[in-house]
């Protein structure tokens, strides 16, 4: 049954390719931790993107999204969307507020690792 949807055989990876993918995954997981630490009420989505770009640069990593071809090359190394925005938003001056739904997508070129997450910004408890 599945062969009608996937006529080609799966591509088997070499040990080298698997090792590159593993290391890429570790790096992208670290970048996601940076996103979670940076994404706070009051932060701009551009702040998150700049933190990830600096992290990638310090590790010699190339973000897949930045410069991705289109009418206009994609300008950021992350895709960040808030609330009503669908995925693959462009980071910018939009400020994160309490209760916002933040969606972040990360990718790294060498070794190819892709990771996406969503988080809801906490609301402060009212003063008693």
Features:
3-stranded antiparallel β-sheet, alpha+beta, single chain, 30% helix, 3 strands, 128 residues
Instruction: Tell me the fraction of residues in β-strands, as a range.
Output: 15-25%
The overall pLDDT average reads: 89
Rg from alpha-carbon coordinates: 17 Å
- Strand/helix succession: HHEEE
Largest sheet: 3 strands, antiparallel
Give the beta-strand count: 3
Low-confidence blocks of residues? none
Shape: globular
Structural class: alpha+beta
Please report the distance between the alpha carbons of the first and last residues.
Answer: 61 Å
Explained architecture:
The protein is α+β, with helices and mostly antiparallel strands and 128 residues long. It is 30% helix and 16% strand. The chain is built from two helices and three strands, in the order ααβββ. It has a three-stranded antiparallel beta sheet with strand order 1-2-3, covered by helices on one side. A hairpin with a 4-residue loop joins β2 (101-108) and β3 (113-120). The longest helix has 24 residues, at 15-38. The protein is globular, with a radius of gyration of 17 Å. The N and C termini lie far apart (61 Å).
């Amino acid at each position: 049954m599945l062969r009608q949807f996937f006529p080609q055989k799966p591509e088997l990876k070499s040990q080298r390719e698997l090792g590159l993918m593993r290391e890429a995954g570790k790096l992208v997981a670290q970048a996601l931790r940076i996103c979670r630490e940076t994404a706070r009420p009051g932060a701009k989505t551009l702040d998150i993107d700049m933190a990830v770009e600096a992290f990638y640069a310090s590790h010699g990593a190339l973000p897949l999204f930045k410069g991705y071809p289109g009418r206009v090359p994609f300008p950021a190394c992350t895709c960040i969307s808030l609330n009503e925005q669908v995925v693959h938003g462009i980071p910018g001056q939009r400020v994160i507020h309490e209760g916002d739904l933040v969606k972040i997508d990360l990718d790294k070129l060498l070794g190819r690792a892709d990771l996406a997450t969503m988080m809801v910004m906490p609301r402060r408890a009212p003063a008693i």
